[in-house]
Amino acid sequence: MSAQREMKEKNPWPVTIIIIVIGVIVIVALVTVAVLQNMPLSQKYKYGIVLDAGSSHTALYIYEWPAEKDNNTGRVQQTHVCKVQGPGISSYASEPWKAGESLMACMQEAQQRVPGKRHLETPLYLGATAGMRLLNMENSSASDAVFRAVERSLHTFPFNFQGARILSGQEEGAFGWVTVNYLADRLEQGLETTGALDLGGASTQISFVSSNYDGSESPSNSVTFRLYGNNYNLYTNSFLCYGKDQAMKLLLAQQTLLAPKTIVDPCFHPGYSEAVSYSGLYDSPCVSNRKPQGAPEAFNHTGSGNFLQCQDVVKSIFNFTYCKYSHCSFNGVFQPLLQGHFGAFSAYYFVMDFLNLTDTSIPLTKVKEVISSYCATPWDEVKRQHPGVKVKYLAEYCFAGAYILTLLTEGYNFTSDSYTQIEFIKKIKGSDAGWTLGYMLNLTNMIPAEAPDSPPLPYAGYVSFVTVMAVLLFVLVIVSTRRFWLRCSKRPQIV
Ligand SMILES: Nc1ncnc2c1ncn2[C@@H]1O[C@H](COP(=O)(O)OP(=O)(O)O)[C@@H](O)[C@H]1O
Ligand SMILES: [Ca+2]
After folding, report:
1. Whose atoms come closest to the Cα of 176: which ligand?
2. Which of 238, 254, 174 is nearest to 202 (CA)?
3. Tell me: the pLDDT tens digits for 96-127?
4. Which ligand 1 atom sits closest to the C-alpha of 201?
5. Dihedral (C-alpha) 70, 75, 80, 81: value to the nearest 10 degrees?
6. Looking at domain 244-424, which CATH architecture does it have?
7. pLDDT tens-place string over residues 197-213
8. What UniProt keywords apply to this chain's record, in alphabetical order (predicted)?
9. Within 13 Å and on the Cβ side, how many CA atoms surround 28?
10. Is 291 exposed, middle or buried, given 0-12, 13-18 or 19+ CB atoms closer than 10 A?
């Protein structure tokens, strides 16, 4: 009996097993608590809504980001876009209430998409670009009435409406640049930035960082940012009236000076023929000062589809001769030397995508051949080949292709080499390239000036570290316990 008890007392295993079980429980508890305590909270999102009131149309963008990560990069993304039916808000100058009305369907969609409990805190912005810039120049009371109407509509929704306003050309260019670089994660990582080329209907923007530009030569083209601890001195310029729709008006106005009744336009397809009213053509401040005296009601716009001649007419709407700076793009506007990669979006993308020319490794000579052959295709055949494409766009792709090439090569001075540095883009990581995201990031202070402090270890590293340390500790305890019991069992028994 006493020998059995002795045996039991000397056998260390029952105690060791108890220690192992307790140890395992402690480790599991420790790691679970550490993981739960530090786990990113279940993905709750915050939202922001931006309405891009462009000259040709309005689009509503919904952005979302994880609620607890307001300050981190690459996290805000577009979750939804709604295209407003009808034209841009500047087209409602004579019946402003319709501008407000036009936004209702997309706003109702936004109300469905953003969770109800987030409505009150969700900022809502409307930014208008060159269409409203032009209307404001031409008739400021009409543009005020349009803004009153859209504000009235937007106030009826439960979001945190932050106002509707016209962006300056500089803001439009700079926020497009912020969007492109934010989405490509170039800002937080302090990488060389990508330039931004935006072609709208009424204006066009070019924005890039050039190491030989300090902002002193033409201060009005300079925008400085401090983002994630890095300083950026951005060159940006917006050319009002050089969006593709207004540029086409410039082109038509130019041609009607020579032939007021019928123009044979080399930028339109052979067989194309359309009556155009003079009042429609001259309704914009971009061309209104050029209206010929005693012009008829309308003129006949016909096409001849000759790319080379088209390029010549397109060149005539630019002034390449006057420049008071060291370098200019066109119309006497300063531009530093081009540098780095560029993302070209909006109409640049739509046009080049239609023409199958988004691949910029295609040499410029080949690009010209493709556009030339599209221009020369008879209008009936073009319509037959592309039954699903809006006829207005179809008719304009020849002009638009020639315009884009001229703007890039003669206007901004891209060469056959630097042309390959352009990427025609629509989206980056699922979000549309354009000024809206950069605008919202700026207004919600979502890009910090200084790099946010990051924990010494990433989350996965932290969890692995805690686990390894706990296991090591446990093994140590087991080994020492076993050694202790073994020593006890080997000690001579005193009887
Ligand atoms: N599918 C398409 N094909 C060709 N052009 C398009 C297409 N979709 C939009 N666009 C053009 O893109 C331009 C967008 O300009 P917009 O943003 O409305 O003007 P702005 O930025 O000057 O205020 C317009 O010229 C419009 O016609
Ligand atoms: Ca635009």
Report:
1. 2
2. 238
3. 999 999 999 999 999 999 999 999 999 999 99
4. 25
5. 90
6. 2-Layer Sandwich (3.30)
7. 999 999 999 999 999 89
8. ATP-binding, Calcium, Disulfide bond, Glycoprotein, Hydrolase, Magnesium, Membrane, Nucleotide-binding, Transmembrane, Transmembrane helix
9. 6
10. middle
